[in-house]
Amino acid sequence: GKGIMKSWEDACKKARQNNESLKAFKNPYQNKLDLEQISSMMDETTKQEYFDKLLPIFFNPSEDKIIDSNIFIAKWLQTVPDKKIDEITEINGIPIPENLKKVIKNLKGACPPSYTPSEAQAKITAVYGNKYTIIKDEPLGVGTIAETYLAKNNETGQEVVIKFLKKNISKEKIEADKQEAQTLLEKSTVIKNKEEYAYYKKIIDVLYEAWGRETDLSLEKDAAEIMAKNAQKFNVVKPIEIKDNIYVMEKAKGVQLNRLDEELQRRNMTLTEDQVKNLLMNYNKVFIEQLIAIPRDGQKIIQADPNSANIFIDLDNLEKPITFLDLGNVLRYDNLTATRNALGHLDYIFGNSRGIARTNLDGAILPEGVTKENAIERLAHELDTHIYNSKTKIPPPNTINEFCIQVMKGMRIIPNADNANLIKAETTYFSNIFELKNKIQAGLIQEISKDSDFGAKLKIMLKEMKETGDFQAIVRAIITEIFGSIKRASFPTQKHAYSELKERLQYIEENKESALTTFYSLLN
Lower Cβ count inside 10 Å, N or C end of the chain? Predict the structure, then answer.
């Protein structure tokens, strides 16, 4: 009745007042890079042995040297955002040379090929006979695990893409690299007890298990088929066939996101202001679908490595321009887990710190003497102290999750491998928003010079979106996707979803002021 309405009116008023004096979030914990964390477990003798091997690579870096060494080095460098490179000057006292910046970018999809064109053709012919012929000497893309070539199906004339592992890359090679890391761990005299040893050993196991799966391209084909079945707002490269781990797929339409500026300039293409906004919002909707949508049945597949080389933009189809490829690293969820993940995003929007703590601790490995409830209480307390305190402007979910990971590391808690992978994926999806804006602006330099009025509008629009992250639109799209997914889901999934939703609504009812303060913070 009137009493309930009055309590909500009072909560809204206080929440808006709280938002008038919010301060930016400052992370009190230093975010250690993976390599620094792993190396911190070594004594001086072991560390020297490890870095003696790396010194030639870092002083004279090349993609080949890095990949041929332990796969850990290449995979770690791939996770360093381009914009962060300038901030890193040394690793464990080893200065990083200037040309390493270019190497890091190449490791994300532009490494040198390990096969000559004739060797690549011979490899394909040995498996498929004369069915496919490479039609471009330069590979389409080369990463740390595999390389791809444009070819023609000689029977149909269709252009296809053929992918296979690089020379010297195999599951056995990655297993040997893991053993090398384990040996260094066993030699360490820094580790204080068996719990600490188990913590670092598990980190190594989780990392190398995921990298080992990337060598089986049949898993990528399977993931593409499942993702394509459920995709609503984006396209997925269609698999054709696979034999002896040589994977044939359709050619993606468009250009890699990280080369969008070059394509716009090559075409001298004109985009209207509305087309720019639609392209950016389309990307937002796609990554929100990837992270939140609940499939009606079957598995939910999330691209866990959505770096800008793995996303294609088709400028000839601006209604549905985005295509995902390279699904070697994916997350697979059943419907119930996908539902929990989707509804869990409401915890971030309304500040349910215990819900966020539960999500981050789900499946985590706890140290001896720490119960899950203890861990939830500690993590929720940290969230309430530093973020959900009615004094701090709420950062994006990926920043909150990174904060949670840092707190968990301090407690010697090993995150669930899928959760950690999901957090890295969310971070990449968010950083791609800013890269897409920058590529659009860089690609339209010619157009801006021709039309100063359009140029002025575009610069203002992109500046505003860069400052806000367009987060208001993202928050609304998240809520729309959650409820749209529940509506489309099967009855058993809907039943589970409403049970999860009831918990969130109860939290909001019991914490009106703080929940609304958080919500308004995201919309302001």
Answer: N
